[in-house]
């Protein structure tokens, strides 16, 4: 294959150089940038399809704005790879998501062009509004633009910010990048609303094509405005965004630079809150990604000349264990209701959604609603299972406390991505769930050490009457084949898996294999604690009375987690024994290879050995 060349892109190491180009060169830049993304990400992996869809938008924004003085706030960041390329990081793109490489999302520590650290959805409008208010208060003449996807618009936080914006008397532009996708297909009434807008061809053709002519004809433009309002009433009744105080323009083709640039330029000159609705295609310019935008959302390395992604025989993951358990359980339990906040693929619920569509509820990117919805279901006789990432459950914490646990409702939380997640980094690590769950009354918390333990804990949590949580890591398990038979575990009871002497390793969750290997050379006892809450106090008493030291192990923040629970119990019960807690340190763990990251914080077999030796 011939080496690709990028004659224009090679000259654009800053947006300032992009702005020096004649506008008729920008389509060539778009072609080169899109091809560069295809060639690079196919060799290193990363978020792929979303960035292909924002190439023209990114070029238009950096061409028109004086970045970084003017502010662009990207929502989530899957769509920001073209932005990284155009802001001086092209030659580092192949390191994205890797240890010591580029961040997977916008990060102000990495570049002044990254105005706000993102990773969780729907924050862009609120952050941009804050920047616009700050510019006004400080007397700074600055443009502020938020770019948000239609998937992210399903979250209440976006509308909270828009509802507030109109009362702030600031100038800002919100661009809705509508590609009809988040990671999975979008769901709900808002998605249907956007679809109706795009189906209004008369409205789109008059607004998209006619406004360029009418705006140049004084007197006619006022008449056109009245016609436009009349058309809105016919085609898009009660325009949602204008009711929120935004001047709505669109939809505009997000891949047509000749339409996009003058439209954005005009809107940047307007006072007040502006809302531009553009239509893009996820995976644009690469046919396999256009046909399968879900599959190409995030990719490992692949052959860009092939028509599909490679079929790899992957190891069974904890998410797979959950997905299979969910199907098995639903086959026995018609009361089961499975809830996901837009993470059908990530939580391995595709098979369930097809086999049990009446019991499957995708609430879109709305974690707070997901939790309270489960509470309402539980009140009236269903058994909800909320499948949610650890980092996203943080967004539904108030609902977990007040709507579920305060009422002691019968809800099971299947918490995926617990611990270090690797390439997605600090915004997605499940670093805090044991700490923030353990302090809530009524809930029980389990942490499986292997695939079979995960299956049995899910079954146990399902049959437990009250709030229950099972937290498990991203990625492959230990290779254990789960028992098809499902058995309830005794609540609050751990198990000794290796009997030794002097030093005992109390493992909470999936660090057990490392503990067992490290224990061999020191004849240490190894305990699979299983439950973080309630603790197996009898087992801890037994261990404390027969050993010289205890080491606790968890892939959670060392502050307030499972080790802290052991410390509290030993202190309150007056038992004097040396204890060392091993877990995540009091700092955010960045992106990279999970094994590399664990080695850096000594949370692996070698780190356990070193801790044992320090006590010997």
| Terminus-to-terminus distance | 59 Å
Give the overall pLDDT as a whole number. Answer: 91
Strand order of the largest sheet: 9-8-10-11-13-12-17
- Report strand %: 15-25%
Give the beta-strand count.
Answer: 19
Radius of gyration: 27 Å
- The secondary structure category is alpha/beta
Helix content: 40-55%
Main sheet, how many strands, which sense, barrel? 7 strands, mixed
User: In one word, what is the shape?
Assistant: globular
Low-pLDDT runs of 5+ residues are: 198-220, 226-238
- Number of helical runs? 25
Show the helix and strand layout.
Layout: H1 15-19, H2 26-44, E1 46-47, H3 49-52, H4 55-64, E2 71-74, H5 81-89, H6 124-138, E3 144-149, H7 156-165, E4 172-178, H8 189-199, H9 201-214, H10 220-235, H11 240-243, E5 247-253, H12 257-268, E6 273-279, H13 287-291, E7 298-299, H14 318-332, E8 336-340, H15 350-355, E9 360-362, H16 367-379, E10 383-389, H17 390-393, H18 397-405, E11 412-416, H19 433-438, E12 444-446, H20 451-463, E13 468-471, E14 495-498, E15 502-507, H21 512-520, E16 525-528, E17 531-533, H22 537-546, E18 547-557, H23 562-572, E19 578-584, H24 594-600, H25 605-615
Parallel strand pairs: 2-3, 3-4, 4-6, 5-6, 8-9, 8-10, 10-11, 11-13, 12-13, 15-16, 15-18, 18-19
Antiparallel strand pairs: 1-7, 12-17, 14-16
């Amino acid at each position: 294959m011939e080496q690709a060349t990028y004659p224009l892109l090679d000259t654009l190491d800053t947006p300032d150089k992009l702005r020096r180009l004649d506008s008729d060169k920008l389509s060539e830049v778009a072609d080169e940038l899109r091809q560069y993304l295809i060639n690079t990400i196919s060799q290193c992996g990363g978020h792929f399809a979303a960035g292909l869809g924002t190439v023209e938008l990114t070029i238009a924004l950096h061409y028109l704005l004086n970045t970084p003085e003017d502010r662009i706030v990207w929502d989530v960041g899957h769509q920001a790879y073209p932005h990284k390329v155009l802001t001086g990081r092209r030659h580092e793109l192949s390191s994205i998501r890797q240890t010591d490489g580029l961040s997977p999302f916008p990060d102000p520590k990495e570049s002044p062009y990254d105005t706000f650290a993102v990773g969780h959805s729907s924050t862009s409008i609120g952050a941009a509004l804050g920047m616009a208010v700050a510019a006004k208060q400080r007397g700074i003449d600055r443009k502020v633009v938020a770019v948000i996807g239609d998937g992210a618009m399903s979250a209440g936080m976006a509308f909270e910010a828009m509802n507030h914006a109109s009362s702030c008397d600031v100038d800002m532009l919100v661009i809705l990048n509508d590609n009809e996708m988040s990671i999975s297909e979008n769901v709900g009434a808002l998605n249907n609303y956007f679809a109706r807008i795009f189906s209004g061809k008369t409205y789109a053709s008059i607004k998209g094509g006619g406004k360029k002519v009418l705006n140049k004809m004084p007197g006619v433009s006022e008449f056109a405005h009245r016609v436009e309002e009349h058309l809105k009433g016919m085609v898009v009744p009660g325009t949602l965004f204008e009711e929120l105080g935004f001047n709505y323009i669109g939809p505009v083709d997000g891949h047509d630079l000749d339409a996009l640039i003058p439209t954005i330029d005009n809107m940047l000159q307007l006072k007040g809150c502006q809302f531009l609705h553009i239509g893009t295609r996820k995976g644009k310019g690469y046919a396999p990604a256009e046909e399968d935008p879900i599959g190409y959302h995030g990719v490992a390395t692949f052959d860009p000349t092939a028509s599909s992604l490679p079929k790899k025989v992957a190891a069974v993951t904890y998410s797979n264990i959950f997905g299979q358990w969910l199907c098995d359980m639903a086959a026995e339990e018609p009361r089961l209701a499975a809830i996901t906040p837009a993470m059908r693929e990530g939580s391995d619920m595709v098979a369930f959604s097809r086999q049990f569509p009446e019991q499957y509820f995708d609430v879109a990117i709305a974690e707070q609603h997901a939790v309270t919805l489960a509470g309402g279901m539980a009140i009236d006789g269903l058994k909800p299972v909320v499948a949610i990432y650890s980092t996203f459950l943080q967004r539904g914490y108030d609902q977990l406390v007040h709507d579920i646990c305060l009422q002691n409702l019968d809800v099971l939380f299947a918490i995926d991505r617990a611990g270090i997640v690797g390439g997605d980094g600090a915004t997605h690590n499940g670093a805090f769930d044991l700490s923030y769950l353990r302090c809530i009354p009524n809930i029980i918390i389990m942490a499986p050490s292997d695939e079979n333990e995960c299956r049995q804990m899910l079954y146990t949590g399902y049959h437990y009457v009250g709030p229950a949580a099972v937290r498990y890591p991203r990625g492959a398990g230990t290779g254990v084949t789960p028992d098809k038979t499902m058995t309830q575990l005794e609540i609050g009871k751990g198990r000794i898996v290796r009997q030794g002497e002097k030093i005992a390793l109390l493992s909470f969750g999936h660090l057990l294999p490392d503990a067992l290997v490290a224990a061999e050379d020191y004849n240490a006892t190894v305990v699979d604690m299983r439950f973080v809450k309630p603790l197996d106090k009898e087992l801890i008493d037994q261990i404390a009375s027969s050993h010289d030291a205890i080491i606790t192990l968890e892939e959670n923040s060392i502050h307030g987690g499972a080790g802290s629970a052991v410390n509290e119990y030993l202190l309150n019960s007056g038992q004097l024994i040396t204890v060392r807690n091993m877990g995540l340190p009091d700092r955010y763990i960045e992106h990279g290879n999970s094994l590399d990251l664990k080695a850096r914080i000594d949370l692996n077999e070698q780190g356990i050995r070193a801790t044992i030796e320090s006590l010997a």
